[in-house]
Design brief:
This protein is of the alpha/beta class. It has 2 domains: 189 residues, 3-Layer(aba) Sandwich (Rossmann fold); 177 residues, Glucose-6-phosphate isomerase like protein, domain 1 (Rossmann fold), CATH 3.40.50. Helices cover 48% and strands 14% of the residues. α7 packs antiparallel against α18. The protein starts with a helix and ends in a 29-residue tail after the last helix.
């Protein structure tokens, strides 16, 4: 009976603004006090992060130079992290590679522990960029230790939200530079929201070195575009109350990283009750389309690039023709002819001026809000949705098996 009453109380809240307007004690009792605030304050924290990172541009440029990441250099750049922190790297790999004209890849921290030789060539220099909210996950520091021992020509850049974490303490070591973001970005909720987007904003500065004013202006436009999504939270809440048991998130380029992160947010905040996956638009045809049923929500992050969008719209029209799933579409100037009942389109003015690379950040905000309201609809507590404590804010310690010994 208590669970049923709680579910009704949750459903009474129709927007993010209504959730935040509740007394703090009520927010804590219903289990969303941290998550709602951390989603809401993102745009203002991005601007603060851009200012902080811009003041460190010379240090970042020096780190790239030392790692051989220059037009004449032979260095490579690897972006790493675990879970959401890895998806930060997936959002950034394409735009950074395009801007720097050097090989860039996103590799899970766990993969570096188990297969370092396959990802970091021993005969070449490079820069390993580690993303971490707390910096206390066991593989985060283990990877730094392993690479410091086994790759003398590799340098390290740590981007973290926790200055007191284990990872940040490596800033005193040779070949390591740490960029610690404001403590407000270090989410207290189990799930990563503000920390994810702020680390993405910070990492994107690597694609804007020497153009600090342009970088800050672009982040300001990004914050304005995200405001449209936050103000549309009531419509996302309505989508979250639909009867769907699975969700597939679609994105192209950097926005595939946003699809991956949004799928994880839905999975985490619903305690696995909504089955999720992420795909590229063209990849959906190669098997995964068989998982799109009547009770499947297909979330489409639409590109602003004409050619990319043409491919995406073709796929959406195919889903319409085959009458597969219902859709949530997020983008700018969404064509009316692809939106059918009961689909929902969230139009985001200004998103095209931000560009697809950074639009991954606003996509994730939509994914966060959708997951938040779905969690509440299911009677769960978004701050700690795992009823059986299967997952926790920081992964518990596990045995590290060293491959390289000094």
């Amino acid at each position: 009976m208590h669970q049923q009453k709680t579910r009704v109380e949750h459903l009474a809240f129709r927007s993010l603004a209504e959730l935040i307007a509740q007394p703090v004690d009520a927010q804590r009792q219903l289990g969303y006090a941290h998550t709602a605030q951390e989603i809401d304050h993102q745009p203002e924290t991005w601007i603060e992060t851009a200012i902080r990172v811009d003041s460190r541009q010379s240090a970042l440029a020096e780190q790239l130079s030392r790692a051989g990441l220059t037009p004449a250099g032979a260095g490579g750049l690897v972006l790493t992290g675990s879970g959401s922190s890895l998806f930060v790297g997936e959002c950034l790999a394409v735009p950074i590679q395009r801007a720097l004209d050097v090989p860039v890849s996103a590799v899970p921290s766990g993969e570096l522990l188990t297969n370092l030789d396959g990802h970091l060539p021993p005969a070449r220099p490079g820069l390993l960029v580690s993303f971490a909210r707390s910096g206390n996950s066991p593989e985060s520091s283990a990877v730094i230790e392993e690479v410091l021992r086994a790759r003398s020509t590799w340098h390290h850049l740590i981007i973290t939200c926790n200055g007191a974490g284990r990872l940040a303490q490596y800033s005193t070591r040779d070949r390591v530079h740490a960029l610690v973001l404001d403590d407000r970005t270090c989410d207290r909720s189990l799930v990563m929201t503000s920390s994810f987007t702020n680390m993405t904003v910070a990492g994107s500065a690597l694609a804007w070195l020497g153009r600090g004013a342009d970088y800050r202006a672009r982040i300001e436009r990004l914050a304005a575009a995200a405001g449209h999504i936050l103000r549309a939270s009531d419509r996302l809440a309505n989508v979250a109350r639909q009867e769907f048991r699975s969700a597939i998130f679609l994105g192209s380029g950097a926005r595939f990283g946003a699809a991956r992160e949004s799928a994880l947010k839905m999975l985490e905040m619903t305690d696995g009750r909504v089955h999720t996956s992420a795909e590229t638009y063209l990849g959906l045809r190669h098997g995964p389309m068989c998982a799109v049923h009547d009770d499947t929500l297909v979330v489409c992050f639409l590109s602003s690039d004409d050619v990319t969008r043409a491919y995406e719209l073709d796929l959406i029209r195919e889903l319409n023709r085959k009458q597969l799933g219902t859709r949530l579409l997020v983008g700018h100037d969404i064509p009316h002819d692809i939106v059918r009942s009961p689909d929902v389109a969230i139009d985001c003015p200004g998103l095209s001026s931000v560009g697809d690379d950074l639009a991954a950040v606003t996509d994730v905000v939509a994914g966060q809000l959708l997951a938040l309201f779905r969690s509440l609809t299911l009677g769960l507590k978004p701050d700690a949705p795992s009823n059986d404590n299967v997952i926790s804010r920081v992964v518990e310690d596990f045995t590290i098996h060293a491959r390289y010994v000094q």
